[in-house]
Amino acid sequence: MDQADDASSGLVTRRRLLLGVAGGVGLLGGGGLYVTRSLSGDSGGYDAPETQPMVTTRGRLDAADPPERVGSWEFEGADAVVLFVHGLGADAGSARDQAYTARLGLAAATGATAETDGPPVVGYSWESNVDWGPAKRTADANAAPLADWLAEWADDDGRPVHLFAHSLGARVTGATLRELADRGQSNTLTSVSLFGGAIPSDSVAADGRYGPAIAAVDAPVFNFHSRNDRVLSWVYRASDRTRAVGHGGLAASATAPAGYADVDVTDLVADHYSYVEPEEGCLPRTVDRIGIEETGRTSRTAEGGPVGSVQIS
Is 223's pLDDT higher than 80? Predict the structure, then answer.
């Protein structure tokens, strides 16, 4: 288990995190204001159209129903797609908006002249708008449905899938990689990118919770981290009593699994919410790493398998 992971199964709300962390530095002083501002960000305020394609497990996990597709799924001319997995606190509308923001960010990063010319982005919508402990358990429970969907996509469509995961979406992703490894389905993804990953830094080590699965997947895994991410440096560390991989990457003393690479984007990302925003985040650097181009074409640089265990800036 992750350090302090399941021990924090009690209900931890955003308000409780705010009061707890701010209280430690003086709620009425600068520390309280600092934490309040850290928690009050958004993802750019973009409103997604109803046509934004989504895969959702909301209201379907307990019934063991397969994920449901909503929105428009016309991806003519695209050679690859991006699947965006959101983090904590997103309802269905917010999940859709965040996926759309990633679509706009990718369009800008690939030099597309219009958002519809950029790589198609499908949002993965899961019930994260609950307290912290239940959200982590729900993230784990989404491993099998997401693995099912990826396997179905590979069989029915076959176009490469680049997986983007933000914040607690990294936990959904890590659990899914473990599920895929257990099934022997290591070839369903073309690349994996974590943005501000809200999982322990040691969980991605070679001997960590997700390390063996990272090594098993037939795709590079990039961890885009920023030391400007105060939600991870203050709130996550206070709640789970460990360091997040999305803040400082894998510890220098740890051994990285094959195919894993840290990418420091502190110079590009100012807070926890702007990793995939147009003009604000780190998607230009991401595009360069994973080799995706306008309309979702995958360049040869992304087809060479594992990239090794290195720190990239």
Answer: yes
Instruction: Tell me the residue type at 1.
Output: M
- In angstroms, the CA 222 to CA 242 distance is 21
Read off the pLDDT of residues 58-109 as tens digits, 9 standing for 90 and up. Answer: 999 887 788 999 999 999 889 999 999 999 999 999 999 999 999 999 999 9
Six-digit token string for 15: 């308000």
For tokens 């220098």, what's the residue? 252
Within 10 angstroms of residue 282's Cβ, the number of other Cβ atoms is 27
pTM of the prediction?
Answer: 0.86
Report the pLDDT value the prediction gives residue 143, as an integer from 0 to 100.
Answer: 97
Q: 3-state secondary structure string, the chain?
A: CCCCCHHHCCCCCHHHHHHHHHHHHCCCCHHHHHHHHHHCCCCCCCCCCCCCCEEECCCCCCCCCCCEEECCCCCCCCCCEEEEECCCCCCHHHHHHHHHHHHHHHHHHCCCCCHHHCCCEEEEECCCCCCHHHHHHHHHHCHHHHHHHHHHHHHHCCCCEEEEEECCHHHHHHHHHHHHHHHCCCCCCCEEEEECCCCEHHHHCCCCCCHHHHHHCCCCEEEEECCCCHHHHHHHHHHHCCCEHHHHCCCCCCCCCCCEEEEECCCCCCCCCCCCCCCCCCHHHHHHHHCECHHHCECHHHCCCCCCCEEEC
CA separation for the pair 27, 31 (Å, rounded): 6
Q: Domains along the chain?
A: 6-312 (3.40.50.1820)
Please name every residue paired with 161 in a beta bridge, in sequence order, or none if there are none.
81
pLDDT per residue as tens digits for the range 121-172:
999 999 999 999 999 999 999 999 999 999 999 999 999 999 999 999 999 9
